[in-house]
Write a structure and sequence with these properties.
The chain is about 40% helix and about 30% strand. It is of the alpha+beta class and about 80 residues long. It has one domain: MHC class I-like antigen recognition-like (Murine Class I Major Histocompatibility Complex, H2-DB, Chain A, domain 1). Strands 1-2-3-4 form a four-stranded antiparallel beta sheet. Its main location: membrane. It holds the Pfam family MHC_I.
């Protein structure tokens, strides 16, 4: 199964990102993005080898948009 989890926090604590997105395939964490690094990154060797730099750029842009949406949603709450 393929699952993505996005978490946004109003007060994550010192040194912790306020937004995190992780992807899992069959229970294995294979990608991660957070508001500190602001870049989608592979978490497995097979994922790193499977796609090119354009994939990471596209996914990073998508998650930067999600990060901004969640920032607005947190302010609204």
């Amino acid at each position: 199964s393929l699952r993505y989890f996005h978490t946004a926090m109003t007060d994550p604590g010192p040194g912790m990102p306020w937004f995190v997105s992780v992807g899992y395939v069959n229970g294995e964490n294979f990608v991660r993005y957070d508001s500190t690094v602001q870049r989608m990154e592979p978490r497995t060797g097979w994922m790193k080898a499977a796609v090119d730099a354009e994939y990471w750029d596209r996914e990073t842009q998508v998650l930067q948009g999600q990060e901004q949406t969640d920032r607005v949603n947190l302010v609204t709450l």
